[in-house]
Design a protein that fits this description.
By secondary structure, the chain is an all-alpha fold. It contains eight helices and no strands. It is rod-shaped, with a radius of gyration of 39 Å. The termini are far apart. This is ECF RNA polymerase sigma factor SigK.
Length: 197
């Protein structure tokens, strides 16, 4: 059953010149010799149709083989009143070829979409890291512009999570002084960072 497709441009085999309906009936009964005759008669037609749609010779050969296997497996479905064997084979070949092209296009579209998502994700991650780094550098620069007591109070409160009272105890400074210095320090930080309220 897995015969190579004859890709010559000559006339079809003898079975093609006669009535392929009888040959098809024998193929439907599992007659391998009848299938051989059918193959010889239809393979050039099938390949010609497939290659016009798929446009890639290697893929066209593969699709044409699949079509010929389909004709073997579906031979019992053939109905002479619906059209000739050649017309039926041509229809099967065209459908298979179109399916292959659509499948290949869908795969390409999926690959492009995935690549775009990965690129966007990578870009977003890098952009976020750069933005975070720039903000951190700006915060450090602005912190350097505070007085020593303001910087220490803000650092203990916001980076270590201490309360006003704990900051006052850690610095050995009265609580009202710490609150005032922190308020002033935060105002200067906000101004330095360009935060508007």
């Amino acid at each position: 059953m897995s015969r190579p497709i004859p890709f010559g441009t000559g006339r079809p085999a003898d079975a093609d010149r006669g009535d392929l309906t009888d040959v098809m009936r024998h193929v439907a009964q599992g007659d391998k010799e009848a299938f051989s005759a059918l193959y010889d008669a239809l393979a050039p037609l099938v390949f010609g149709i497939v290659v016009k749609v798929v446009r890639d010779r290697a893929q066209s050969e593969e699709v044409a083989q699949e079509v010929m296997i389909d004709l073997w497996r579906q031979a019992a479905r053939y109905r002479p009143e619906a059209g000739s064997v050649r017309t039926w084979a041509a229809t099967v070949a065209h459908r298979r070829a179109v399916d292959r092209v659509r499948s290949a296009q869908a795969a390409t579209d999926r690959e492009h979409a995935q690549a775009a998502r990965e690129h966007t994700t990578a870009y977003d991650e890098v952009a976020e890291q750069v933005e975070t780094r720039l903000e951190s550098e700006q915060v450090r620069r602005c912190l350097r512009g505070l007085t020593e007591l303001q910087r220490q109070a803000v650092t203990l409160a916001y980076y270590r999570g201490l309360t006003y009272r704990e900051v006052a105890e850690a610095l050995g400074t009265p609580l009202p002084t710490v609150k005032t210095r922190m308020r002033d320090g935060l105002v200067r930080l906000r101004d330095c960072m360009g935060v508007t309220t």
